[in-house]
Amino acid sequence: MSKLKITLTKSAIGYDKSQGATVRGMGIRKLHQSVIQEDNAVMRGMIHKVRHLVEVEMVAEEAN
Predict the structure, then answer these.
(1) The pLDDT value given to residue 60
(2) Residues 38, 47: Cα–Cα separation, whole Å
(3) Dmax (CA) of the chain
(4) Where do the structural domains in the chain lie, given as residue ranges?
(5) Alpha-carbon distance 2 to 49, whole Å?
(6) Partners of 54 in the β-ladder
């Protein structure tokens, strides 16, 4: 399964509290912090909800 690199580029302050909770649910706590997450339907839904706050990149799979 592919992975996504999600980076918080804009603060959630001033937006609906549920959007801040969504960012926290992704594992992001600070501005400009990046996390690597699995590319699945749940994560895609979270990204869609806060798409104005985050930047998303596809990450290549590592060979074992």
Answers:
(1) 84
(2) 12
(3) 43
(4) 3-59
(5) 20
(6) 8
Pick from 4, 41, 30, 3: nearest CA to 53? 30
Q: What is the pTM of this model?
A: 0.90
> By three-state DSSP, how is residue 6 classified?
strand
Which CATH code is given to the segment(s) 3-59?
A: 3.30.1390.20
The per-residue pLDDT for range 36-54, each reduced to its tens digit, is 999 999 999 999 999 999 9
Which residues, at least 6 apart from 27, have a Cβ–Cβ distance to it below 8 Å?
Answer: 35, 37
Record the tokens describing residue 6, joined without a space: 């999600």
Give the span between the Cα atoms of 9 and 52, in whole angstroms: 9
Q: d(Cα 34, Cα 29) in Å, to the nearest integer?
A: 9
Rg (CA), the chain: 12
Secondary structure letter of residue 60 according to DSSP: P
